[in-house]
């Protein structure tokens, strides 16, 4: 979206090429170093081959578990050494071929790529009977190749994701070997290097574990679907719908950003992709309308972060839940509906108050898209999404649903005369879809190292004990300060455990991708919550949502920084503002822990509990948004903001008496606001 020189906002028109350029600029995980023409063709063919492999197996049958994961990882690691340089300076170096740099890529990188492929494919092609005998009794070849794989995997992850995740993996490996030297409860017998490699390399509890399996089986296919769905025009249709629904109201472009990000997030599942695609249109329009640059960037990034929690596709973590919880994907989708709504509602209410406070207008009829014409032009693009959702709801596997979604995307793209896709664009879609698999694939395999150490040493149970013991001590102290009738010891223990878990999730997420963060916390923190009686699906959703918050939490807030770059705003201020806008996502996980009915699919679901929690959340988020924005019907005084914050906390507590007290606190604020509103001069 853009604005012309007369101050009018031009209709939305998504520029796919510009969106891809922005995404590569701001998302380091898909930014490749300069490649020579021959190297670019080679990499392109390999990426397309990887996509075709996954597309074919999704529709016609997966290979055996370890073979499928091994082929995927061999492509991922091999390609990472070809496209990601050793240092950041490599992005600025021209791709010049020489004897020591064939096709512009150093011999060291070629050797690392070859070593990675050999080490990865060694295990999948060991006969099953032989592999079963060697688990626990690895050969010298197994130990050597396993050691090589660990080293190249850590280096590949460092190049594509950054330092934090490899460092965490190294610390866990060090813990597994030097267990006897650990203090207190953390002590354990320790493992030899050979035993560690055996566990990480030859079993499915390490590198070839669930994390890699989910990326290779589910995530890849849905990312590929999202790429093709956007290419055929579904993203444009979603943005037109968002503008038609929300654009006419106060602060129109900002509300279009929220609705558009919610709809676009259904098919992207990526915070940064969502930010740059929708933000390339909405951020300039918000700035032109009168929003500050920082606020405009924050609105887009906070909204786009919701893409990872918006059904039906969500982020990679949703597919991991299928494996961790052994639940159908439809259950995960249903559980995500209300929390996703609360996130977008929290952003929307603050945007609305901000627009009212600054007197910002909505879009005029001339600036709004013609929805009838949009559907007439792009209605075929909805077919793949409808079929994908239909196949999912019918109980078939997610990857089969993605197969049919991709197939229909290509069919619609090739046959739709209004927005025809060429065979070259199909090739580019297959290539770009595989791009997203590289960083997340390496991260998932590295997380397998961490999970492997947890299962080898039992450190997860020890950490759970430390956390719950600390929370119990804090609860005992606080229990002496408040009446027992307000909060019992068990409730306070759970509350402090949740606070500590949430803080760790955010801190971990500042350095590692959401998917990796979720896997680590699901392995270590979710069992801690389980010890306190929290249902598994509730515990997993809690750590998932707090991990997603890292995308808008400084000092490393990828989505916020991408939006700031497009808006020309201060990145740190943008991150802080985006975090404030996303505070609904901070509160809601606490609500569904104490009132699991909010997730719709929990064991003790009741409509009465659901309605109390839902209405309390809506009112509480509204109060909090008003307090943070300084506006309700008119500007709020300091005492009103204080009462609104207290009321917000009481309202989101899923208990009737607490909600009634919160409502009582709102009454004087409303009376004062109505009086002030009546005194305002008529416009």
TrEMBL record:
Q: This protein is called what?
A: TRAP transporter permease
Q: Tell me where it resides.
A: Cell inner membrane
Q: Report domain TRAP C4-dicarboxylate transport system permease DctM subunit positions.
A: 149-605
Residues making up the signal peptide according to the UniProt record: none
NCBIfam families on file: TRAP_fused (TIGR02123)
Q: Which UniProt keywords apply?
A: Cell inner membrane, Cell membrane, Membrane, Transmembrane, Transmembrane helix, Transport
Q: Where are the transmembrane segments?
A: 38-58, 70-87, 99-123, 135-154, 161-178, 206-229, 329-353, 382-415, 436-457, 463-485, 492-509, 515-534, 541-563, 583-603, 610-633, 645-671
What kind of membrane protein is this, topologically?
Multi-pass membrane protein
Q: What does this protein do?
A: Part of the tripartite ATP-independent periplasmic (TRAP) transport system.
> Where does it mainly reside?
membrane
Q: Enumerate the Pfam families for this protein.
A: DctM
Show the PANTHER family listed in the entry: BLL3936 PROTEIN
Q: Which organism is it from?
A: Neorhizobium petrolearium
